[in-house]
Specification:
The radius of gyration is 20 Å and the shape is elongated. The longest helix has 24 residues. 69% of the residues lie in helices and 0% in strands. It is built from 11 helices and no strands. It is mostly helical and 205 residues long. It folds into 2 domains: 54 residues, Arc Repressor Mutant, subunit A; 136 residues, no CATH class.
Length: 205
């Protein structure tokens, strides 16, 4: 099959297909989206779709990989711990995000909306899978002054990541009307301090 022609005046067709898939996923389960709908949305044909993707599940995964910032929950956790005692304005939050991770605010909003949508469990699983890949690095960076309680550390990690993703889904449910920094301020510094206490206990078992 020949490579589809790229129109220099628009996004590459692969990106347009992925964008169309993400928009559909905000309101429809992955299984309800058809190739026909995506090709109609992007004014391309089925051959073009199958040049890039084998099926709907593959484009869903590719679209999520490009559209959402998997590192965001870890970044928010870091901000909660590091800046828990400092009131955060919108401008200050944006500055801290710039320091900690290159995350587009539109991606933050998209992640919140997707977590609250019909594909929320899929999105949450993919974010947690991505975080799990860096979990060993996180644990290795912790103090190790005795026998670690590995199970407790994993429970703390799962609890913290689930809580943050839950807050982000709630933000999506209320139409993004609450800034992320306001949500951080509602639980910091008390919750981060409590988690740090749990971590300290687990690393000094």
């Amino acid at each position: 099959m020949g490579r589809p022609r790229k129109d220099s005046a628009t996004k590459p067709v692969q990106e347009r297909l992925e964008d169309a898939m993400i928009k559909r996923m905000l309101d429809e389960p992955v299984g309800a989206v058809s190739v026909r709908e995506l090709t109609e949305d992007t004014a391309c044909n089925r051959s073009t779709f199958y040049y890039y993707f084998n099926d709907i599940d593959e484009i869903a995964n590719a679209a999520l990989d490009r559209a959402i910032p998997y590192e965001l929950p870890l970044t928010i956790a870091s901000l909660m711990v590091t800046y828990g005692t400092e009131p955060l304005s919108s401008q200050r939050f944006d500055e801290l995000l710039e320091q900690h991770a290159k995350i587009d605010p539109e991606q933050v909003d998209m992640l919140c909306l997707l977590l609250n949508g019909p594909n929320g469990p899929l999105v949450e699983r993919k974010v947690k899978d991505a975080l799990s890949h860096i979990y060993p690095t996180i644990v290795d960076a912790l103090p190790n002054e005795g026998a670690r309680d590995e199970l407790s550390l994993r429970i703390i990690f799962e609890y913290a990541s689930s809580a943050i993703l839950g807050l982000m889904a709630y933000r999506g449910a209320i139409g993004l009307s609450v800034p992320v920094e306001r949500m951080i301020g509602a639980v910091a510094p008390e919750v981060p301090r409590a988690l740090i206490g749990c971590i300290n206990r687990a690393t000094h078992a």
